[in-house]
């Protein structure tokens, strides 16, 4: 039996509309899936309804991955792939796997030889770089800054040093 694939499904950023932001392939893939790994089931259902209004919500299976998910739960989220069903990963906003818990699932899929298929969609990181006018040849995305004040100061000094060397620093 052939494994199902793991599709990385981009979500909208802000108040944008599906037609204005996502290529038709995204809706086509979403309409073919019944298994989804998501950060929040309610908002994922809303997104799926926006992109494929004809899709029956009752037929959908959701696996929630967020800060409350135990690491031991995550491998079971890929079980449908081993039965030949493809699974979609939907982030709360933008592209899954970037500053997003979906990266853990993607890493595990690679370890298990499951084909990972990223779909084209909006990325706040790339949009920020495009609009910044800063060096787009050499840049780093540093994720979230530390919460601890002293650690945050230390991190910002390090990022400032790299920026002086010509590398654009992007963080949340």
From TrEMBL:
Show the Gene3D superfamilies listed in the entry.
Cobalt-precorrin-4 Transmethylase, Domain 1 (3.40.1010.10), Methyltransferase, Cobalt-precorrin-4 Transmethylase, Domain 2 (3.30.950.10)
Question: Which GO molecular function annotations are given, in alphabetical order?
Answer: methyltransferase activity
Q: Which residues form a coiled coil?
A: none
Q: Where does this protein come from, organism-wise?
A: Capnocytophaga canimorsus
* Xref: InterPro entries: 4pyrrol_Methylase_sf, 4pyrrole_Mease_sub1, 4pyrrole_Mease_sub2, rRNA_ssu_MeTfrase_I
Give the highest taxon in the source lineage.
Bacteria
Q: What is the official name of this protein in its record? A: Uncharacterized protein
